[in-house]
Amino acid sequence: MDLLSNLALGFSVASSLANMAFCLIGVILGTLIGVLPGIGATATIAMLLPITFQLEPVSSLIMLAGIYYGAQYGGSTTAILINMPGESSSAVTAIDGYQMARKGRAGTALATAALGSFFAGTVATFLVAIFAPPLTTIALKFGAAEYFSLMVMGLVMSVALAHGSVLKALAMVVLGLLLGLVGTDIYTGTPRFTLGITQYSDGLNFVALAVGVFGIAEILRNLEDEHDREVMTKSINRLLPTRDELRQMVGPVLRGTAVGSVLGILPGGGAILASFASYTVEKKLSTNPGEFGKGALAGVAGPESANNAGAQTSFIPLLTLGIPANPVMALMIGAMIIQGIVPGPNVVTEQPALFWGIIASMWIGNLMLVVLNLPLIGLWVKLLTVPYYVLFPIIMAMCSIGVYSVASNTYDLFAVAFFGLLGYLMSKLRCEPAPLLLGFVLGPLLEENLRRAMILSRGDPTTFVTRPISAILLLLTLGVLVLVFTPQIRRRRDEVFTESDA
Amino acid sequence: MAFKKLFGTFVAAALVTAPAFAQGYPERQITMVVPFSAGGPTDTVARLVAEKMSTDLGQQIVVENVGGAGGTLGAGQVAKAEPDGYTVLLHHIGMATSATLYRNLAYDTLNAFEYVGLVTEVPMVVVARKDFEPADFAGFMEHVKANGDKLTLANAGIGAASHLCGMLLMQALGTPLVTVPYKGTGPAMTDLLGGQVDIMCDQTTNTTQQIQGGTIKAYAVTTPERLTLFPDLPTAKESGLDSLEFAIWHGIYSPKGTPAEANERLSKALQSALADPGVAKAMADLGTAPSSAEDATPAALKAKLESEITRWKPVIDAAGTYAD
Description:
The complex is a heterodimer of chains A (502) and B (324). Chain A contains 22 helices and two strands. Chain A has 502 residues and is mostly helical. Chain A has one domain (2-501). In chain A, strand 1 (183-184) and strand 2 (191-192) form a beta hairpin. In chain A, helix 3 packs antiparallel against helix 4 and helix 9 packs antiparallel against helix 20 (433-456). The radius of gyration of chain A is 22 Å and the shape is globular. In chain B, 44% of the residues lie in helices and 19% in strands. Chain B has helices at residues 2-17, 21-24, 41-57, 72-80, 94-101, 137-147, 161-173, 185-193, 204-212, 260-274, 277-285, 298-319; strands at residues 30-34, 61-65, 87-91, 113-129, 152-155, 178-181, 199-203, 216-221, 247-255. In chain B, strands 1, 2, 3, 4, 7, 8 and 9 form a seven-stranded mixed beta sheet that branches. In chain B, helix 7 links the parallel strand 5 and strand 6 (178-181). At the A-B interface, helix 3, helix 15 and helix 20 of A face helix 3, strand 2, helix 4, strand 6 and helix 8 of B.
């Protein structure tokens, strides 16, 4: 059995005392920076890179990988506790996780996130081990047309993220798309909507936008009404989920893992969709969809699992093609090169100890995260009892440092301030930030792939329906659209009927 | 009181030691600005040399990534930095091409910097998807000339190495291809691997592993001589494409007004870093080599920048694509 001997090799590398220690350091660091709002894995890995040069290549990569998925974990913690998602994936967790926290169920939400992530991480690790090479072949079949159709599907799904009016959700998606247009057009080099500010020529910073519309807006809202906060801190329930809650988690976790694993493999931004897609699935399957947006357990369990599964499987394109799926992966490639390992299709065969060692360490790291985080939940939740006049300035300061550290760009801080106010305004108008964020993330991908597909097909739009994968995705989109709007139409009709009766 | 006195002594000491700048330099850590995001090829080059230069200088060089606007944001920041020898810039050929690509730069490329030296010149390789029909470069040229409008040429965005090389290739062959820009080399390479696009011309740092793995097909290199890494690959020049001679050169700059002693000291540290066998090995794995001690000097970099600005202006103007 090739697989077994490979995994055995991997575990023998990853379970050496030194590598276990570096894995532990990585996940602890990752958790810490993930918990600090705004400070992301990219900045941390960039700062730590010089230190890793002194280490063995395997150890340094194990540590960097640990930081990466540790930060994913920590990011959900801030999303749940203070409505401050550090990256697009945890924006979804914030929707129901934060509502759970407001109802005094922060402990349950955090434990759900931890357990769901661990399960998803375990499954995805084995998927990486077993299917990495064949899955890569499939991922390469995704060209511009396929990505465009995938993004269309993502956007349609995003409407389901809203728990209020569909019209407002659509408006928010469109606003997000428009904000995503800011920056240099890659096809012509023309700056668009940058207001003449060169610092915005690469577009608005995602972290700045997310911290603004979620976090800062939330702080403003809390300052307006202190009463809410007191309720939240006074009624903190038991930390670990009950048997019944565990039972509720199983379905969402399984489905989230499946969705996340599949999307994570696509190097062109599939992982971004993972948590959004899972949320949509859970809301559609739920017997009680009205609960979503008000603290649904499934709304945390599903997306968190999907997110973590996607994070693991996004290592597949990195390890088999040598192509990074996101900035963190790019940094890890830089680390590999400096260590004298040039990533590429040959890494698996030329450096089996490295390849399988990293894969095995992912599983060990995920286990460490659960062991580490479950006892910490009590501590995180206690943070909520810190008086707001201490907590809020700290959060604001950490956010500013974090946002600035992404690109050392002061204009990103202006963006935080602006989007903080916009987020506050939006909350007054009962518009939700999650669809806006998804529009912002998907907009550029949608445009880029649409135009590239059109260039490649020499301006023939039928390319989207004649390419089989793209056609299937568009058909699925149509299906989702019908699912989303049928209840609306039925309700509208019912309303009409009631009115005419009266 | 004691503090004031102490402070006064410091100021006096600083005034006295100011002229004797070179002796103490460097006394604290140096920031090396890389005008691209962390993890990219330029960042990798910077981190490779920064580490060894730190050893020679006895002070840490910290790499700071100030990405954006094709490297002009980072360059602009260094142009405005204090010229005290504690801020330097590591930039590639984009330093010369952005002088033409950007018509409203915040700095005057030729007059805003001092020079430390050349770091490395990374060769380019003309590659295609692995099932591209022509067997050799002669066949490639013929095929492209005959089917130009049906073929696609990928690049990593305006101003990128692959964009510059693509312009040169099309000009040398006299055949326009359908250009497909991507956001960075990663996605462009993914589509080349998947056979979604036909041709690309990119740095060995990005292509070597894929060529060796047989996932893409290499046709020619753009250097004057063949590469030891790929002895079987012809140069474009051998095949009659004289104008396709091109490398992505990297240089280290400091803000205008930086004392010559500091630049000399940095240059010496650069030369010692480039002589390090570890650096040479890491660069060789990427298909490039450290610049010679003569090239890692202020004068050589100055000459390079001036000649490259002159060389690229007509090429970019002829293509008519600007980045602003």
